[in-house]
């Protein structure tokens, strides 16, 4: 469970700042940054709790702080001018490949690069008395000097620094990501330096444009005194009460189904709420058993695409990947040829488009073709959608299915395989076919597409991880090795990888290397999966509009191909609970795609390792997702990113509204609202339901400060079913159990 | 013209049906979209100057109303106000031009106005007023601010704006081309106005970090180029540019949601001297073939030279980018591909020019020193640009370059009132 320790460490680092501060000012800086959550760039969006920095407060207090820090209706005008300049420079500096002429001296670091250019900025009106501030090149010295210049009382330093960040929260979250979570930053070697740099810039601009900024402290106190969270509290409380009561009573009516016949096939899905609907429909189709664990299948891997040279981690952001898989090694010559051809065409097109005198001829030359394509795309999204998908497949192939395992040592492979199976509680009664099913989404023209992919894979398709684990488990050596772990997989058992497209509900099964004896099972599987897809589409279409439910599949398909679609799927909206326990607990309940489900068998988990892992990794990820949906629905301007209609992508890293604005972190309006006023997501805190003895659970919580904090501060509701339903308990904020009736 | 309007507005309409789904103003936007297409039809068909003014006014007002999508959002309101003021000024210029012409001739038919022999005292002021009206409409410097600040509008409105109404200035000049062709000084002025915006717009575009502002600045450059073409006497080329760019930009705006997916290739490469030489010779051959196949553009010492220089630069850069990082034996093939593309371009222009021939809109002008200086500056700038990777090798960048960078960066910022400086001022309701 190395990964878990790392995750706890990473999290505590993000929350409190791990660097040992040798300077009181640095300590204050770290403390002010601890209020700011990270926000991932568009290519790998990961849901985050926007109030992560306040998790050490009780939830109600955090709501109040949220209002005071992030939801203020107004901001003093001179501070807005400071924001304008900060936005301008951050946009320019953090650009990742939109601008052709890049900002000079970026390699010198954030503050240095900007300091080199600022003297030329006429908008700032630098006069001699102020320009001495710029003589310093050390961010700490600048911060100290500015705080002194602004006349901030020493005891208010930390508060003032925090306000410097929270008055432009979105950009601060991006910098928090770069400083604390991104290892690949090309310019800043040390995260803490970037944090200091940014604060130094903010303070410097404040000195120049808002010398009276001291009043911000009073302004904040007034805002804080005027907060009112009663209605929000009531709204959440009522929704949570109603939902949890129903869920618990439904679960308590379930009965354990002892000894059933061996299933035809076993499926392992992701814990994602979208899998729940699919699993329920699939189990009805035939004698199938389903399990679920986090969609990275316990493989902390980085995937390198040998065709495009792209490298991306395919595991939760809480875990540091330790293995590398090189995909795309076995691609055909035609694919390689197409790929290099498309690269040449692309290079020529871009060279002309981003040229000095060439774009004019290019517009004439390609304009009419583009115009026709635009009309086609608008009127017949399906045809163009197929063309685009076809072209992408032709030029990039499916690299995920061609990889080699050589880069992972065999002993490690064995550990990963054993841990994955133990995590699932799948250590005996193996069916002859076991399908590992990852998931991903395929949307067009949507900056938020990575948010619809597998959250446990850092916003990527988790099909690759399924492929890798299946390949590991199909090796004879591994099967032998697993016997030592008391896991005996029959020789006839074969693992297949698949990927569930959560948008179209199609499951693509990879049958490479499947023995002849299993072929008939596969064809039956495919038929059943097709059937499930139809049913699931119909159910999901009715969530959009009850009228189109009969022709659900068609509607869903069009959503997948249409480039104008702002609500391709509802994603994880309406998520409400996380059930940790065996499948029979929820098998006969229609959970309406609102629950994360994690397989867990407490009897096999004698050392508590498995439950600890589940609570520390998948549950935390689920809590982040839940909090992101919750806050984005409560206030889509302060915590969400507003309507997609007026969004503007900046620097490929994030979204701004209109001409320019704060970096809009959070979910767009269309992800959580049906219309401008009608929310689809029901904001409520996640209810955790665990089927295990409550003392076992408590011993884990007591040992883990992260869990301790989340439960005692009521960021999550924990409900525990004692095995065999002797009783159900709810965890109170003083961490004692209260019996639920 | 009608076909292009129909193509774009129908596409944008269909796009908006899904894109604005659930938006409280969807119906409002769709209705305005239909209305604006009809007023544009009227604008391009009408011969009566008073009706022309009317259609001009209506189209612009409709656009301003569409820009104001959510009135609770102060920045969006400021954008719409900025555009409205600009259109108002343009309308005043246009009305003044009409009054000036009408005062002398007593005519309201545009067609008959254009064949009426006008004295220079009328020609010059009315031409200038028309040019000013065109400059406000097409956001030419110094009237460019409203366009850069217009991105608070919904994406389909931006598409419609950049594909449609911004082109109004170019359309105006083309509509009154015979008037401008009578006065060389007037054309020279048009040329200079266009050139300035071309240079500014294109360089601003290359510096922007957000997608929509990059597209807006690119529109500026393209508008400048269209006006520049008019100034060279190539009104029919300007018309083609208008249509081509309209489709091009509408597509790019609607597809702006994919911008984070675009895999950018670093186009700043150090090219060897031989490859530049090969590319340059390819450019020269291509321009020869272009002239051969196009037939309208000729090798003569007038403004044709400008077009030919542009073709050479286009083909050279195409060849250069195609041939970088490829095997030597591929070069002849790429050479031929480049030539084929340029020939295709020439033929395409030829077909359309033939179609526009009766209007007599292609009248190359004699070359002046101003043209030559402009051309030399353009070519030098282009040479520096394609070799920017080699120039970067010098470690320290000169002060004036940094100064220029900051100056240009600031000049291309939107109007401060139209920026959402406090997050919670943004409103979607």
General description of the model:
- The complex is a heterodimer of chains A (741) and B (429).
- Chain A is of the alpha/beta class.
- Helices cover 47% and strands 11% of the residues of chain A.
- Chain A is built from 27 helices and 17 strands.
- In chain A, strands 11-10-14-15-16-17 form a 6-stranded mixed β-sheet, with helices on both faces.
- Chain A is globular, with a radius of gyration of 27 Å.
- In chain A, 51% of the residues are buried.
- With 429 residues, chain B is mainly alpha-helical.
- Chain B contains 19 helices and no strands.
- Chain B has helices spanning 2-19, 26-45, 49-67, 74-105, 110-115, 120-137, 145-148, 155-163, 168-175, 177-181, 184-207, 211-231, 235-254, 273-294, 304-323, 331-356, 369-386, 388-391, 399-411.
- Chain B starts with a helix and ends in an 18-residue tail after the last helix.
- The mean pLDDT of chain B is 91.
- Classes of the chains: A alpha/beta (741), B mainly alpha (429).
């Amino acid at each position: 469970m190395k990964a878990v320790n790392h995750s706890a460490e990473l999290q505590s680092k993000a929350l409190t700042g791990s660097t040992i501060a040798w300077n009181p000012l640095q300590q204050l800086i770290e403390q002010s940054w601890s209020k700011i959550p990270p926000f991932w760039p568009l290519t790998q969006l990961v849901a985050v709790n926007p109030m992560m920095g306040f998790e050490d407060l009780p939830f109600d207090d955090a709501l109040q702080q949220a209002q005071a820090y992030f939801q203020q209706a107004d901001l003093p005008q001179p501070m807005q001018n400071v924001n304008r300049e900060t936005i301008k420079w951050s946009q320019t500096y953090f650009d990742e490949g939109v601008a052709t002429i890049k900002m000079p001296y970026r390699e010198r670091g954030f503050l240095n690069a900007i300091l080199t250019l600022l003297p030329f900025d006429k908008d700032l009106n630098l006069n001699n008395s102020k320009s001495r501030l710029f003589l310093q090149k050390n961010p700490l010295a600048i911060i100290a000097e500015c705080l002194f210049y602004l006349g901030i009382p020493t005891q208010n330093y930390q508060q003032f620094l925090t306000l410097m960040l929270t008055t432009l929260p979105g950009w601060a979250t991006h910098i928090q990501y770069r400083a604390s979570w991104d290892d690949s930053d090309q310019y800043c070697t040390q995260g803490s330096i970037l944090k200091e740099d940014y604060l130094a810039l903010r303070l410097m601009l404040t000195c120049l444009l808002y010398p009276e900024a001291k009043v911000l402290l009073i302004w904040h106190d007034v805002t804080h005194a005027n907060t009112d969270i009663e209605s929000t509290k009531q709204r959440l409380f009522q929704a949570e009460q109603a939902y949890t009561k129903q869920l618990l009573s439904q679960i308590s009516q379930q009965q354990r189904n002892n000894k059933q016949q061996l299933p035809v096939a076993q499926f392992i899905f992701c814990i994602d709420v979208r899998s729940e609907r699919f699993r329920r429909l699939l189990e009805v189709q035939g004698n199938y058993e389903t399990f679920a664990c986090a969609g990275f299948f316990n493989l902390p891997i980085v995937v390198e695409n040998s065709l495009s040279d792209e490298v991306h981690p395919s595991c939760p952001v809480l875990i540091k990947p330790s293995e590398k898989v090189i995909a795309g090694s076995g691609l055909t010559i035609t694919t390689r040829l197409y790929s290099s051809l498309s690269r040449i065409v692309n290079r020529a097109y871009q060279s002309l488009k981003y040229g000095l005198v060439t774009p004019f001829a290019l517009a004439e030359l390609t304009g009419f073709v583009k115009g026709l394509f635009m009309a086609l795309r608008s009127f017949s999204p399906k045809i163009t959608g197929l063309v685009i998908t076809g072209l992408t497949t032709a030029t990039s192939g499916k690299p995920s299915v061609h990889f080699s395992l050589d880069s992972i040592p065999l002993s490690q492979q064995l550990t990963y395989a054993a841990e994955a199976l133990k995590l699932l509680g799948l250590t005996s009664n193996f069916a002859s076919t076991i399908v590992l099913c990852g998931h991903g989404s395929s949307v067009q023209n949507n900056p938020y597409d990575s948010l619809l992919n597998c959250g446990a894979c850092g916003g990527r398709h988790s099909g690759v991880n399924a492929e890798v684990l299946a390949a590991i488990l199909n090796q004879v050596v591994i099967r032998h090795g697993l016997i030592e772990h008391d896991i005996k997989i029959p020789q006839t058992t074969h693992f297949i990888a698949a990927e569930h497209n959560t948008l179209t509900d199609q499951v693509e099964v990879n049958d490479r290397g499947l023995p002849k004896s299993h072929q008939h099972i596969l064809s039956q599987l495919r038929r059943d999966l097709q059937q499930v897809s139809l049913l699931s589409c119909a159910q999901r279409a009715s969530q959009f509009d009850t009228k189109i439910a009969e022709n659900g599949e068609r509607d869903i398909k069009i959503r997948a191909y249409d480039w104008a679609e702002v609500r391709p799927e509802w994603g994880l909206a309406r998520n409400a609970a996380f059930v940790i326990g065996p499948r029979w607990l929820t098998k006969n309940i229609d959970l309406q795609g609102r629950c994360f489900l994690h397989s867990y068998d407490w009897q096999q988990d004698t050392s508590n390792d498995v439950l600890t892992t589940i609570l520390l990794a998948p549950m935390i990820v689920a809590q982040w997702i839940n909090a992101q949906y919750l806050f984005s629905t409560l206030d889509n301007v302060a915590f969400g990113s507003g309507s997609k209609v007026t969004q503007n992508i900046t620097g490929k890293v994030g979204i701004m509204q209109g001409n320019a604005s704060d970096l809009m972190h959070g979910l767009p309006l269309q992800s959580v609202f049906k219309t401008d006023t009608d929310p689809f997501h029901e904001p409520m805190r996640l209810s955790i339901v665990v089927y295990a003895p409550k003392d076992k659970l408590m011993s884990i919580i007591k040992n883990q400060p992260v869990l301790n904090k989340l439960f005692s501060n009521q960021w999550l509701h924990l409900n525990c079913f004692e095995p065999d339903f002797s009783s159900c308990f709810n965890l109170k904020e003083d961490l004692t159990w209260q019996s639920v009736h | 013209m009608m076909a292009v309007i129909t193509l774009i507005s129908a596409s944008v309409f269909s796009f908006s049906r899904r894109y604005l789904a659930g938006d409280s103003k969807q119906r409002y936007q769709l209705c305005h979209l239909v209305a604006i297409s009809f007023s544009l039809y009227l604008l391009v068909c009408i011969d009566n100057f008073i009706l022309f003014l009317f259609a001009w006014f209506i189209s612009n007002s409709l656009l301003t109303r569409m820009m104001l999508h959510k009135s609770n959002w102060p920045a969006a309101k400021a954008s719409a106000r900025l555009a409205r003021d600009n259109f108002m000024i343009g309308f005043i210029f246009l009305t003044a031009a009409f009054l000036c012409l009408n005062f002398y001739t007593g005519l309201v038919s545009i067609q008959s106005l254009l064949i009426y022999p006008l004295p220079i005292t009328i020609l010059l002021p009315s031409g200038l007023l028309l040019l000013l009206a065109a400059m406000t409409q097409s956001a030419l410097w110094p009237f460019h601010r409203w366009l850069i600040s217009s991105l608070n509008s919904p994406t389909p409105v931006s598409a419609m704006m950049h594909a449609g109404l911004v082109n109004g200035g170019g359309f105006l000049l083309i509509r009154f081309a015979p008037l401008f062709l009578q006065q060389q000084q007037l054309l020279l002025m048009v040329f200079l106005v266009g050139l300035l915006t071309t240079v500014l717009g294109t360089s601003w575009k290359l510096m922007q970090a957000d997608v929509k502002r990059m597209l807006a600045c690119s529109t500026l450059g393209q508008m400048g180029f269209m006006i520049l073409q008019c100034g060279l006497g190539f009104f029919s080329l300007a018309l083609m540019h208008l249509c081509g760019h309209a489709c091009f930009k509408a597509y790019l705006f609607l597809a702006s949601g994919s911008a984070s997916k675009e895999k950018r290739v670093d186009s700043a490469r150090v090219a060897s001297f031989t490859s530049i030489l090969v590319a340059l010779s390819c450019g020269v051959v291509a321009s020869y073939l272009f002239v051969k196949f196009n037939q309208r553009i000729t090798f003569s010492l007038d403004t044709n030279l400008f077009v030919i220089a542009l073709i050479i630069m286009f083909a050279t850069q195409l060849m250069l980018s195609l041939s970088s990082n490829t095997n030597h034996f591929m070069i002849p093939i790429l050479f031929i591909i480049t030539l084929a593309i340029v020939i295709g371009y020439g033929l395409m222009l030829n077909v359309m020019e033939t179609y526009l021939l009766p209007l007599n809109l292609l009248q190359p002008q004699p070359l002046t020193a101003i043209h030559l200086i402009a051309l030399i500056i353009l070519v030098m700038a282009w040479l520096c640009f394609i070799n920017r990777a080699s120039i970067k090798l010098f470690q320290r960048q000169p002060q004036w370059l940094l100064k220029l960078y900051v100056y240009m960066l600031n000049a291309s910022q939107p109007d401060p009132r139209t920026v959402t400086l406090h997050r919670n001022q943004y409103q979607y309701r």
